[in-house]
Amino acid sequence: MGLHRRSDVGRRRELKFCSTERVRVAWVRDAENGVWGFLCGSSSPVKRWTEKYCLTALFVMCLVSFLKFKLRRKRTIDRVAASEHGNHHYGHDGFKSSARRYTWDHMQKHTMNFSSVLGYGGFSTVYLARFPGSTMGAVKIHSQSDRLNQAFKQELDILLHLQHDNIVQLLGYCDDPDEGFLVLEYAPNGNLQEKLQGVGESMGRKGQMLPWKRRMAIAFQLAEAIEYLHEKCQLQIVHGDIKSSNVLLDEQLNCKLCDFGSAKMGFSSTVLPPSSHGTKRMMIGSPGYTDPHYFRTGLASKKNDVYSYGVIVLELITGMEAFSAHSGERLTRTLDPMLRDSEKVVEMVDPHLGGDFDLEEAKVITSLSAMCLCDSPSLRPSASDILRTMRNGIPSISFLFRGKA
């Protein structure tokens, strides 16, 4: 193989030959016009069909590449147009979502090429984004796989139809099959797990301890979010993965429930009909939070979320983790003896509070948690029952109702 130069009526061409016994292929460069071309010639005794085959293959390759380029360009133009003119979706409850469509190039700019990582999920990474007007957002990008792409589409579809003060707001999205992402409301105080375990301080977030009153407020707001999903939203949603790391905290430490990748829709009754599961059962939930009844039977219901809520209430009371990776012990098992004896409630309360809590409220909320953790789902309260109990028995949350009718 070699590089040869020759003149051709005042033009210079550079030929790069790649030869075998039977065929000679040449990439030709027109030095005057800077154009590359392709030649295929047969050397004796190769038949002429070899040359036709090479040229046909080249033509097909070029045509496919051109069509792919045109299709990708059209998708990009459509998405840019949609993002520039706004894109509104009407939810099942009649409200208009203001979520905006973005392109990957847009988000590279807003995230400074995805340089600031806010956190990692089991199958996703979240980046900080900055928009005009000092607005900030959290860009969630799922790992690539068929199952995770389905979870992404499901989460997008659900968030487009939800509107509640205690559920994270969808600000924008890109639904390109290869470059999909969600732009979510930014929560500067991280998540509840970080706050209770003191992780937020090491991540540059405000590390102040949550006082008792604020813990009770978070418990109430989370129950409001669950009530909305279970009883007030037409989609009738079971979240399926309620845990403290999925409870975000905004600037005022208000609760924002997030991560709907495991959610299930269509719970017009308490229990999802078995036919909706299909023949293959895939478990949802996280260690320490998963309903044992669901784990045994695979029967998804609204009471799965209620059980997980009960675990979070225990975390708020004690400041302890739901599941210890070190010992493999579940918090519910550790505290089971104390949950059965109201006189031991004071021993459960987070010592970091320094005794600054209301004992009667502690008894009410501990009893409520125990009810949520009942082995039989039918004995667990609904989200509405939880809210009613808290309104009547937790006076410290009264500040949440000021200014409300």
Describe the 3D structure.
Residues 1-23, 31-39, 79-86 and 275-280 have low confidence and may be disordered. A six-stranded mixed β-sheet has the order 7-11-12-10-9-8. Strands 1-2-3-4 form a four-stranded antiparallel β-sheet. It has a two-stranded antiparallel ribbon with strand order 5-6. The protein has helices at 49-85, 104-110, 146-159, 192-197, 199-202, 212-232, 292-297, 302-318, 331-339, 345-348, 359-372, 383-393, and strands spanning 3-8, 11-19, 23-30, 35-42, 89-90, 96-97, 100-101, 117-120, 124-131, 135-142, 170-174, 181-185, 237-238, 247-249, 255-257, 264-265. The longest helix has 37 residues, at 49-85. It contains twelve helices and 16 strands. By secondary structure, it is an alpha+beta fold. It has three domains: 3-83, no CATH class; 89-186, 2-Layer Sandwich (Phosphorylase Kinase, domain 1); 199-405, Transferase(Phosphotransferase), domain 1 (Orthogonal Bundle).
Question: Which descriptors would you attach to this protein?
Answer:
four-stranded antiparallel beta sheet; six-stranded mixed beta sheet; alpha+beta; Transferase(Phosphotransferase), domain 1; 405 residues; elongated
